[in-house]
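Please, is this right?
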Amino acid sequence: MAIQKLYAGAKLREQRLRLDLTQKDFAARLGVSLPYLNQMENNNRPVSTTVVLALASEFGMDVTELSAGDSERLVSDMQEVLADPLFGGELPPLADVRLTASNAPGFARAFIALHQNYRQAHERLASLDEALGREDARATPSPWEEVRDFFHYCDNYIDAVDRAAEHFAARAETPADIRAVALEALAQSGLEVRFVDMDALRFVDHSRGTLDISARAQDETQTFQLLLQVALRQHDTLLEATLDFARFSSEAARDIAKLGLANYFAGAALLPYRDFHAQAQECRYDLEVLSHHFGASIEQIAHRLSTLQRPGAKGLPFFFVRVDQAGTITKRHSATRLQFARFGGACPLWNVHRAFETPGQFLRQLAETPDGVRYISIARDISKSGGRFGAPVRRFAIALGCEVRHAGQLVYADGLDLTRAPAFEPIGISCRICTRKDCHQRSVPPLERNLTVDPDRRDVLPYSVD
């Protein structure tokens, strides 16, 4: 397999500006010529091994930050946008898209945001009978999508909130004590906690100073809700400061993001970074072992593994996704080169869809994306009971995985033949941008390919892709 060259001009330039150095001074400290540095910053040359080593030794930089994770997210998002029939014709070459994402990430994000606004305006026009005469009929960013993108481009890691949660968790002598610590903190803040037989998970009555938690919820869910309330009650200043920095375009987006940050705090307090990272490495990322040790759900464990992106102490780069029975992605994050569709569902060939058929079991899958990158993926159904007869059951499945080069660190790779090419199933991101010609599960043709329809022949698909 060919070694992939590292083009990281934007991050190299960002590091130089952060250090307040001129190109001449930065080049001298890296041991390269000024023209060579200029070419690397403009992605005309890859970042050399010498420069990577110099960044680590001279500046103490976590060189894993040079990886193309953020750039790959932008490439995936731009490909989906460009696949919109609005643009017509042929898609720009992938090399051009990569160049834009790497050299002009600000422009790439603006382009994606422009397309989002177009989609929202188009949807409003489609329901013009409802929009006519309303003052809010102009296109505005979807608060939900705006918040989702905020976490997406923060690498799903919020340092200040994560460290505050870890500091709070230090009050607990063992993971099992975090519940008592949360209850004590809430009592000190003036809230009386009651466990009540109710459908809602959590309800605060500010006038009475009470916090009701559903007695039907599982223990890990109750603890999570207690910690979420700790975040809202005792760390409001930190959450508000983080929201000020994000500069959301609407109060609705800010409100959604605040709840998202409180959820983030709860997860990080339940699974404090350094302890969780160490335990994960020790048990080779066995989700069930981690769940038992920390008293957390499988979903909480899997989600937390995808957030271990602290500079200088990064965990394995995982992707994490949750889907419903319709295949719609309800949670997504990737610290790998694999990125998920922003619109619609996940690839039907992915094992996450089969998890609904085998409740309570882990499914393993070796998969390869069209770019030739190979992954190991584990999937499991995590359906949630309503806690009483007749209550609706929330049915979800999750998938967690990483590139196969990390498979030796995962207990789930034991016994798998990672050297046999046919063992890797072909998966994609979105049918519209997937380049595979003969996929039997394709729902729509790839937009950048020519189609041929033969009236005298019918194969798996009603057309062939050139």
About this structure: Residues 316-466 form a domain with the Beta-Lactamase fold (CATH 3.30.450). Residues 52 and 63 are 7 Å apart (CA to CA). The chain has a mean pLDDT of 84. The first strand starts at residue 192 and ends at 196.
